[in-house]
Design brief:
The chain has about 150 residues and is α+β, with helices and mostly antiparallel strands. The chain is about 35% helix and about 20% strand. The protein has a three-stranded antiparallel beta sheet. The protein has a three-stranded mixed beta sheet with strand order 5-4-6, with no helix packed on it. A hairpin with a 5-residue loop joins β2 and β3.
Length: about 150
Amino acid sequence: MHEAMGKHYDEEYLQLIKEHGVRPTANRILVARALGRAGRPTSQKELEDILKTLDKSSISRCLTLFKAHHLVHVLEDGSEAVRYELCWSYSCQTDDDLHVHFYCEVCGRTFCMSDIPIPLVRLPEDYTLHSVNYMAKGVCASCRNKN
């Protein structure tokens, strides 16, 4: 996770957006910053709650554009909400920082397991792989410790 602060932090988001072939605008920078600061995969509804100054359609357009340029990973964790996470690979062609995610069945949060890479998936030669979503499910440490 990126812990840069202040002006350097904003410059990091600006550079990340540009590296993915996306023209930076104020709204796009706000959405990227909100995703980065969330610290975990975030739903559009959660982004709307964070970015009260942006309307739903603006956030949706940013997420759609980010997805097309590999700036976000799109996760389906079983909670009926699609979640988004910034892709820090600095590539508009591939997602080089794919990792395992964990969905807590008690609190409904999704966590990044950044240190656990997704296992290599070998497909037959006549198949083309575009993405992999590796979601582990169970009970997070916080919920387990409450019981």
